[in-house]
Amino acid sequence: MRTCLFCAALLSFFAVARASDADRIAQLIDIVKNGPSLYRTPEAAAASEKYSPQGTIPAVSSADGLAAIKQSLRAAIELGDFGDKAKDAVPTLIEVFPQAEYLSVIANVQFASGMGFFDDWVQTYVISAKNKFLLSSAFVEY
């Protein structure tokens, strides 16, 4: 008798857990759908307009857009954590995958002979800029 009660309680727990997972997945899908598909920092937006004036993909660059893209990115990450349970999110993620563009300007650098190969010199600055971004990401926390 006790075993049957335990099994019934366990089954009802899993049924509630599945229902709450489905509700949470639906909420996350809505967050991704309603969020921007492309956010550019103001620096990235200015560079996009400067270097590619025609055919520029419309993007959001406001403070509200930053909050929305952070929320969308977190929702997409959380959907990934659900694994196979979140397969209903695949069409939404294909259609509106949240993307964020960040631009880092490295100013006042000079290359001169005797500093090694140019490619190595450039990579040193690129990797330094990447590490700074990763240590203080503008979009999601690590």
Structure notes:
By secondary structure, the chain is mainly alpha-helical. 61% of the residues lie in helices and 4% in strands. It folds into two domains: 15-102; 104-142. The model is unreliable at 5-16 (pLDDT under 50).
Key words describing this protein structure:
142 residues; mainly alpha; 2 domains; two-stranded parallel ribbon; 5 helices; 61% helix; elongated
Write down the Rg. Answer: 23 Å
Largest sheet: 2 strands, parallel
* Strand neighbour order, sheet with most strands: 1-2
Give the overall shape.
elongated
- The residue fraction in helices comes out at 55-70%
Question: What class, by secondary structure content?
Answer: mainly alpha
Number of domain modules:
2
Number of strands: 2
Distance N to C terminus: 49 Å
Low-confidence parts lasting 5 or more residues at pLDDT below 50?
Answer: 5-16
Strand content: under 5%
Q: On the 0-100 scale, what is the average pLDDT?
A: 79
Order of helices and strands: HEHHHEH
Give the oligomeric state of the chains in this entry, treating copies of one chain as homo and distinct chains as hetero.
single chain
Number of helices: 5
In terms of topology, how is this protein built?
Layout: H1 2-34, E1 38-40, H2 42-51, H3 63-82, H4 90-95, E2 99-101, H5 118-135
Parallel strand pairs: 1-2
Helix pairs in contact: 1-3
Sum this structure up briefly.
By secondary structure, the chain is mainly α.
